[in-house]
């Protein structure tokens, strides 16, 4: 499965917004039910990468709606990352990284 990088960043932005930050471990309630899903679980669910989860929708991460604002923020993140990458990497590092991306 090929996932568009910009869409993946947009989903990460939406998950961060939904959770009010980065959640690395799920937060459980008194009845051992998940109160906050991890950002990673939300992303896996969005791209339907978690093939082994429970079929009950109430026990799955929320399916977020990705907006144009999320995509715009993702584009800004990508541009900023490219700027930092260009500024701080030596040419030999850039060639190696690009080679591994192809």
Q: What would you say this structure looks like, in words?
A:
It is a single chain. This protein has 4 helices and 2 strands. With 102 residues, the chain is mainly alpha-helical. It has a two-stranded antiparallel sheet. Strand 1 and strand 2 form a beta hairpin. It starts with a helix and ends with a helix.
What's a concise summary of this model?
Helix content is 54%, strand content 5%. It has helices spanning 5-19, 39-46, 68-88, 91-101; strands at residues 27-28, 34-36.
Strand line-up of the largest beta sheet? 1-2
**Averaged pLDDT, please?**
83
SS class: mainly alpha
Q: Quick one: how many beta strands?
A: 2
Q: Which strand-content bin applies to the residues?
A: under 5%
Radius of gyration: 17 Å
By DSSP (H or I, 4+ residues per run), the number of helices equals 4
Distance between the amino and carboxyl termini: 16 Å
**Percent range of helical residues:** 40-55%
**Stretches with pLDDT under 50, minimum 5 residues:** none
Shape by Cα distribution? elongated
Largest sheet, if any? Answer: 2 strands, antiparallel
- Please provide the ordered H/E string of secondary-structure elements: HEEHHH
